[in-house]
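Lab meeting, action items carried over

1. Structure of the four-component assembly. Owner: GW. Status: complete.
Input record:
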Amino acid sequence: MRIGVLTGGGDCPGLNAVIRAVVRKGVGEYGHEFIGFRDGWRGPVENKTTPLGVAEVRGILPRGGTILRSSRTNPFKVDGGVDKVRATLADRGVDALIAIGGEDTLGVAKRLTDLGIPVVGVPKTIDNDLNATDYTFGFDTAVNIASEAIDRLHTTAESHHRCVVVEVMGRHAGWIALHSGLAGGANVILVPEQRFDVSQVVAYVESRFETDYSPIVVVAEGAQPTEGDMVTQNGELDAFGHVRLGGIGQWLSDQIEKQTGKESRAVVLGHVQRGGTPTAFDRVLATRFGLHAIDAVHEGDFGKMVALRGTDIVRVPLAEATSELKTVPAERLAEAEVFFG
Amino acid sequence: MRIGVLTGGGDCPGLNAVIRAVVRKGVGEYGHEFIGFRDGWRGPVENKTTPLGVAEVRGILPRGGTILRSSRTNPFKVDGGVDKVRATLADRGVDALIAIGGEDTLGVAKRLTDLGIPVVGVPKTIDNDLNATDYTFGFDTAVNIASEAIDRLHTTAESHHRCVVVEVMGRHAGWIALHSGLAGGANVILVPEQRFDVSQVVAYVESRFETDYSPIVVVAEGAQPTEGDMVTQNGELDAFGHVRLGGIGQWLSDQIEKQTGKESRAVVLGHVQRGGTPTAFDRVLATRFGLHAIDAVHEGDFGKMVALRGTDIVRVPLAEATSELKTVPAERLAEAEVFFG
Amino acid sequence: MRIGVLTGGGDCPGLNAVIRAVVRKGVGEYGHEFIGFRDGWRGPVENKTTPLGVAEVRGILPRGGTILRSSRTNPFKVDGGVDKVRATLADRGVDALIAIGGEDTLGVAKRLTDLGIPVVGVPKTIDNDLNATDYTFGFDTAVNIASEAIDRLHTTAESHHRCVVVEVMGRHAGWIALHSGLAGGANVILVPEQRFDVSQVVAYVESRFETDYSPIVVVAEGAQPTEGDMVTQNGELDAFGHVRLGGIGQWLSDQIEKQTGKESRAVVLGHVQRGGTPTAFDRVLATRFGLHAIDAVHEGDFGKMVALRGTDIVRVPLAEATSELKTVPAERLAEAEVFFG
Amino acid sequence: MRIGVLTGGGDCPGLNAVIRAVVRKGVGEYGHEFIGFRDGWRGPVENKTTPLGVAEVRGILPRGGTILRSSRTNPFKVDGGVDKVRATLADRGVDALIAIGGEDTLGVAKRLTDLGIPVVGVPKTIDNDLNATDYTFGFDTAVNIASEAIDRLHTTAESHHRCVVVEVMGRHAGWIALHSGLAGGANVILVPEQRFDVSQVVAYVESRFETDYSPIVVVAEGAQPTEGDMVTQNGELDAFGHVRLGGIGQWLSDQIEKQTGKESRAVVLGHVQRGGTPTAFDRVLATRFGLHAIDAVHEGDFGKMVALRGTDIVRVPLAEATSELKTVPAERLAEAEVFFG
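Predicted assembly:
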């Protein structure tokens, strides 16, 4: 068989580990050939390829990013996109595809499979918000980077009797905020799943200031204040109720400073969370995903994606992955509240 | 309620996170009081205590070790040990115990519960070899430390055209070897679960030397050569077939040097793997274990220990934890073999 | 002797290492007593003290922040401030002070010495911009944090064919930008010492995009565009020519995006650079500064501060430290330019 | 000009950074060509080369090891070695060499220069024991790795009331032991420069055990006990007075256990200290060394090596580098003794 591999969507530590595992097992155990498609779905659409053999995957396991590069191109939004994909596969003699990506990439994979193009998916999102798998690789790395930053910020907060608001990634799901906040000993954790009451946040911050320690507030980029605050802060929110200038972290830090009279600083961790070398957890998970994805291809079990359930790697229909967002359940957030304030 | 807390057995990153979570929730949500017992079961046996309140657990989340210290004391091996434990609990007005530890500590917990002393257990082992839980805290930290070391050793091996044998922890189970070997891109992984054939290891090493790269062999401290080798190496193995001088890592490195004619060096990571600040994964897991352990105590659900199943924390009978060792299954090792050589 | 110790100004990794070294040698070798003043110069002004003995400094060597806390209080700006300092020292029986801080803190130290209050200074600034010493502690930690972030951002930039602009600390001196930019393999480094030409930056960025790699621009927070750009971007600069909204990093990233048509993202590292555990370099330097500062006090050599010259710790007049900012010389920046583009 | 580059001796983080800087400036600013010699001096002796241009040095800055590989080959110990070097240089049209290495490599460089072969040297040793330069790259990385390990070992020592003996690199000079011991808060530091009295070490260890903390002993691999101990331990020392089995760390740990009756464990950090990604300090130093080395070649200033003096890079005769070992002066060790016990 000749198998095409592509990586789509945002950068995520572990992508290279998947690619390496796919190729090492595919070549070494099954004798397949591989071809890399560049820049996500743009590769098959525009027939952009790159050689992909054992030599190309040497040494890439510990490296962040993706040697195949990425993009957000969607063949269903390109004129004649699907036909172009078909044409490329025919031209390159490609029998099957492995698509590594998040909701969008896997959504395309599903629709292509429905149209008879054989694809196996590998789930990827640092946000950990894909429903069909216990964890996605990249998430553990992001959480470690964020919690190391929070460790550092504690001492600077305390030395200056300051509040520090740390904005972490998570537009629709608060997993990074929840886990890094728990790991970092945050005094408040705010997630997109539950609107927050600024006065409650201020109360936590003030109660922390009564100790000899200083408050650390962890806020997901997608977290939002309650309706009441939105009215009060009217001009500062956009039509969809999102906080505009400088992000929610800066906005909240300003609110805290105003309402408590204490200094507060915002730190926005940003893209640092999604690059660089993966943690061991993510390397192992990504490697196992790759090994099982090539098994699925080898067995002709298309339209599936690999997923983690407990300590096992299983296969689930691609449809499952993209049906619903996995958000932080209320009880997980409640569990963390004992540490607030 | 007044609740006693103790930590037994080997050091493990995350112990302090458990203690903190227990106390924070126990005091903050349930209004319980706590008392720390020093040095594992020696504390209750010898009535050695230390204050344990919200003030004592401030700032300990990111710290390795245990503020309660540890020991391997077993009340069932001390003359009148169980009576001494009863006497201490009566003297201190302690209603229940939370025992954080591995197989031995939890085994004592089980037997004491059978004798009417109310205990809840929290599983702990960096080796990840407790049967009742998907993961134990400390394991992820150990694996990260080992795989960072392997990352470093790759470049030094290559610069010198040398083989490097890395000996990691794992006397009876090869989990650390398997995960750090996968994460570190090892060329051979040897575990206690399966005796290894030195000539096969040598073959992998030689095939790696044919590339421009150098071999890294990861070996668990408890791994052993096959019977055939034991006879050949007779004088170097003890009565139980364990390799003696300098450990299995040094022994294997010497064998490789002799049989390949290439330089080989052994690195024994040792206690570095079990100390210091926990990873985010271990902090979150340990914290959740602590929160659920105090819930169990509060509900009077004794004779249980907390455990991870998928992403949930559940309670299982203490007996389950100590019935059988969780070793690396053959298929997980087979999965890794595609990367050998 | 009874000696007071205080830490002033911004948080800086290594402060605790200085305090520990001062106390350990002062008590252990000279038999002095110590008293901690809280919150920088506010401590002596408001008679806020804290016990400071060998017990208090145990375990603080690896910790960021300062156990004495800090502030920007200046006794010369407080009504009767100097008299209050005198009164506190008399009240507490303090014979001499060790003041650990940056330009402002040491400036106060100098003026107080001139008024007969015996002070020895220890220089501190993560910006490394104090003239009298080769390096200050905290700088190496900040540079490592920034260059690790840059390492991570390379892979994410490349995966997305994006430019990333990394804003690092340095209001008046570009040392952190220069060193982290060199260490991180930045494609452009911009410092406050030399106004930059946006079109030149854009040219570097475009030439980098012609390779298969993506540009990383490191910009010190105090860097500024040339006059020409200021006029062009008129509305976006304040009266002093400082870029306003979102800082220089965001502004520059927007410019790059506009002028190249490629995606660009800004990452502002912020306070993460100044907190947390110090590197070994900073721990050793801070420890040696502390040891030599207590020697100076013991010998009655006041009005001096300790400084690094080559590998030696020397004493220099406090005046020297505060006379002139140590900025990045033109030849050091020129040295780096070979890597631009 | 066509310039050959080689790296000799032990692996050292920063080698690739030197190579990159040499090539980037040599090509970009001076228009020179480069050729890589493989495996240290074996390359010129055996005419083993590898292409070395801007493409080859992309992305190598953060990587440990050396893309040119290394060896301990000495042309003066190979039959007709120098003639072979001459022949290779003629064959390849090489006008000058840059030799990056330690005492041995630079010693060869000096002798070749004396014979009319134009060489510029770049000093390299993780041991920091080259006389002509304040610091060598690789040392800072080694010290950071060792002090992070010591940080971790503190908590495990304390949890178990154990002594831990950490053996670090340094056969002839104790710089790594001194700096990592200071940075890690060791309770005893033992270096090759000064024989140690075991009973004194035991006294320090016992006094530490009287606190609630546990002793950490840092010992350089080349440290040795005093004559008295040597006699006592007769059978365990070789003809040169070196401790034999298991190294000095294990030997000392055994002594401590015997003489104190407390548990003690040895950890030998080994090759982990010399591999992997360099710290920012080492990357900057190595980069600057490379930039100045190519300047020297360009100016025809042969027989020199680059060196760090304060914050400046200077050139010194190769003879200076190899004349005398830079050992830890007595006063630097005395400075550290205040922390012993």
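2. GW to write a short summary for the group page. Key points so far: The two ends of chain C are 58 Å apart (CA to CA). The domain at 141-274 of chain C is CATH 3.40.50.460 (Rossmann fold).
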